[in-house]
Amino acid sequence: MNRSEMREQAFILLFEKEFFAGQSCAEVEETFAENYAPLSDYAKKAFENTYDKKEEIDAVIEKYLKGWKIGRLPKVNLAVLRLAVYEIMFEESVPDSAAVNEAVELAKKYSGDDDYSFINGVLGSFLREKNNVCGD
């Protein structure tokens, strides 16, 4: 399984967790593994860490939403953005450009027609100010 497929698994887990908020991360992972495919270690790690850091990640996302509130975003877009921001902020092994490109590809596959450009814009704005946000 390549990194894109692992990232897609993490995205699906984040998306599903939005609908099953009462379930633990472990329960969402178990359901995924039973219904789809075995989970990669990277997908599990990215999902759990993104969920654990959700408030911090959401604060970053909200800063770059122009004319939107985070609660109004489609759940697909929110899951894509959360995963990308997590990777940019916390996964040193993932180049920022790869995180953005993969987010755009996930949006093209799972979201509305033009949502990928919205996601690209939010992430691009974040990257331009990344050093200020992350304290580097």
Describe this structure in words.
With 136 residues, this protein is mainly alpha-helical. Helices cover 74% and strands 0% of the residues. It has helices spanning 3-19, 25-35, 41-52, 54-63, 75-90, 96-110, 115-128, 130-134. The longest helix is centred in the first third of the chain and has 17 residues, at 3-19.
Give the strand content.
under 5%
Mean pLDDT rating:
94
CATH architecture descriptor text: Orthogonal Bundle
State the CATH class: Mainly Alpha
Which bin fits the share of residues in helices?
A: over 70%
Q: Give the CATH superfamily.
A: NusB-like
According to DSSP, the number of beta strands is 0
Number of helices: 8
Q: Output the helix-strand order.
A: HHHHHHHH
Kindly report how far apart the N and C termini lie. Answer: 33 Å
Shape, please? globular
Q: How would you classify the helix and strand content by structural class? A: mainly alpha
CATH level 3 topology: N-utilizing Substance Protein B Homolog, Chain A
Evaluate the radius of gyration.
14 Å
Number of domains: 1
Low-confidence runs: none
Largest sheet: none
Topology diagram in text:
Layout: H1 3-19, H2 25-35, H3 41-52, H4 54-63, H5 75-90, H6 96-110, H7 115-128, H8 130-134
Helix pairs in contact: 1-3, 1-5, 3-5, 4-5, 5-6, 5-7, 6-7
Task: Give me a quick take on this structure.
By secondary structure, the chain is mainly α. The protein has helices at residues 3-19, 25-35, 41-52, 54-63, 75-90, 96-110, 115-128, 130-134.
